[in-house]
Amino acid sequence: MSASLAHGGFAVDWVDRVGDALHLLGGERFDAVVLDLGLPDRDGYDVVRALRKRGQTLPVLILTARDAVEDRVQGLDLGADDYIVKPVAMAELQARLRALIRRSAGSAGSSRFNIGTLEIDTAGKRAFLMGQPLDLSGREWGVLEYLAVHTRRIVSKEQLIQALTGLGQELSENAIEAYVHRVRGKIEGSGTVIRTVRGLGYMLEKIDEPTP
Fold first, then answer.
1. Which of 2, 41, 72, 120 is close enough to 148 for a disulfide, judged by CB 3.0 to 4.6 Å?
2. CATH fold of 2-108, please?
3. Is the pTM of this model over 0.90?
């Protein structure tokens, strides 16, 4: 399943124990959790209980062979956002996961991001540097928008490829590198940088002092 999700454009971290899952979820930022209830150390429901007790609201999708109505009710009552019984088509799982992430992002934030002196308006498909509109091509805008929505999180080249393929022909990793390079040049001096995380991808983040 991890390989299929990764192939679908998701960045995936996989563990098979409740303790490891809670440790990982306590120290890293994730968009969603796909949770199997049949874990070897403890019941998977313990993950949902612990997350909600901590006040963590990230979406949880339970994927399990338990098909009894009472199991579904228990999972949803504990705070899971969706409950899918195996077997499930991978396309449906990916679609449900994307829907959960979209709903979570929509309820958690605005369509405007202000990072340094850079303002990104995802609803209006516009970006401004120090109040002046940025001249961006369609693909350059796509790169900046995706990085802004995932600010301070690492975005892989594969994720950017998946996000931009709707704009036309397929893209190569070299093309993504070129678009990132162009966007870097256009936001220079904004107090915001696109940092390369070697071997993993890119991260949009604010620096301490904008360039004069």
1. 120
2. Rossmann fold (3.40.50)
3. no
